[in-house]
Amino acid sequence: MTQEELDALMSGEIEDLESFEDDEIGNDLDETVMDSEDIVQEINSSKVADDKPLGYNKDTSHNWPPPATNENKMVHQLDDVTKESEEKASQIFDIIEKISNELMAKEETANNIMKVLDSNIKLFSTLSQKFPDVEAFATQLDKNSTALNETKEALETLQSSGDAIMSVMDIMQYQDIHRQKIERVINVMRALSNYMNSLFEGKIDDEKRVSSAQHIAGDTHNEIASNEDIEALLAQFGK
Q1: What is the DSSP letter of 217?
Q2: Do 24 and 117 belong together in one domain?
Q3: Displacement of CA 160 from its chain's centroid (Å)
């Protein structure tokens, strides 16, 4: 009771102390309910759609960490990278190996063609010397000589392509090294995670812990009460 209320009681302005106290409690309860409703309205107005934190928008999204979904979990993403990288690398190696085998087969075919052309050149060279008047022998000799030169060029191209394929396979070996480096990073991250979990492990389950106080003496901030605090306060005044 304030000093003004005490003076009013002593002067006789307040005759029934009990009714006065009931009125005061009722007024206090009404004010508390109104204040509680204002707090709830303030809490609801401070929320952003989709339960995003206050102040979160398109312009400030880069300042907030992404949600802990499967798409954003670091180790989860790295595991997917190593798995997909290994699968794609295996597919690339299969394609390269197939191309290399085909090139080797074409090289063998080119060598066989060159042997036939060499034989033809020897034959038409002999015939052209014995029968210089027969123009067909000289013509076939020139055609086979030209075909032999073109086949040699094709064989050189096949061989250079085969060498290039081998170089690609050597370069692809670095992909496996990169995968191993990523796996090492994953192992370090998992070891740190397990260490931190072990370091902060408690003897009491979180479900059995006493709830933390919302306000402690000496706090300088004005923390908004939660819905549970407001409901508990209303229930206390309603008794």
Answers
A1: T
A2: no
A3: 40
Single-letter code of the amino acid located at 87: E
pTM: 0.53
Asked if the structure places residue 4 within a domain, the reply is no
Report the range of poorest mean pLDDT among 40-44, 65-69, 164-168: 40-44
**Amino acid at position 137, single letter:** F
The C-alpha torsion from 156 through 162 and 166 to 172, rounded to 10°, is 130
- Name the DSSP class of 73: -
**How does pLDDT run across 19-28, given as a tens digit for each residue?**
544 455 445 5
DSSP state letter for 204: S
Residue 151 pLDDT class (50, 70, 90 cuts): very high
> Own/partner pairs for 90-95, CB < 8 Å, 24+ apart?
92/172, 93/169, 93/172
Shared domain check, 84 and 41: no
Domain carrying residue 40: 16-48
Instruction: Identify the band that residue 154 occupies on the pLDDT scale cut at 50, 70 and 90.
Output: very high
Asked if residue 39 lies in contact with residue 224, where contact means CB atoms within 8 angstroms, the answer is yes
**Average pLDDT, whole number, for the chain?**
76
What sign has the CA pseudo-torsion 218, 219, 222, 225?
A: negative
Residue 29 lies in a domain: yes
Beta strands in 122-174 (DSSP E): none
- The 10 Å Cβ neighbour count of residue 174 is 9
80-89, 145-154, 201-210, 228-237: range with lowest mean pLDDT: 228-237
23 lies in the same domain as 94: no
Question: C-alpha angle with apex 190: 187 to 193, nearest 5 degrees?
Answer: 150
Q: Contact at 8 Å (CB) between 176 and 188?
A: no
